[in-house]
MerR family transcriptional regulator (Microbacterium jejuense), 159 residues
Amino acid sequence: MAEEREIDADAPIFAIAVAAELSGMHPQTLRQYDRLGLVVPARTQGGSRRYSLRHVEQLREVARMSSDGIGLPAITRILELEARVHELHGRVRDLEERVRAELEKRPGARVFAAGSTGSVVTLRHGTRVRRATEVVVWRPRTPIEAGDEGPGPKDERAD
């Protein structure tokens, strides 16, 4: 049975002629977009442009927006914002994984409190908090599931 591998959408694999054909544009248009910083491909050591699947999709999106009457400066900003969203989604996934791993390391840990010195104190379910020295600052609602909003702040005390 053949092993299935995920395709890296960011791998620079297409020469300019192929990227132009896949995007439905002229190669000179791709060169112009590169000069403007609109869709900037990777370069080989010899200086040839290499486009990824993500670049081809961006080129198609630029064509759609342009045909809708959106100007190149606005399209540039939209693409910048989309790239930022893509980056932030990756960071959120990484942080969710770190939280998941931390929760797995502490299966009995349910409530966190700030100690009198400012240190984080882990409390187990049913543990009473000394009100004069510790304040509950966070309690997870449920384990993080895919698509779940995850843990959030609560105003409850752990007593």
Remarks:
- Confidence is low (pLDDT under 50) at residues 148-159.
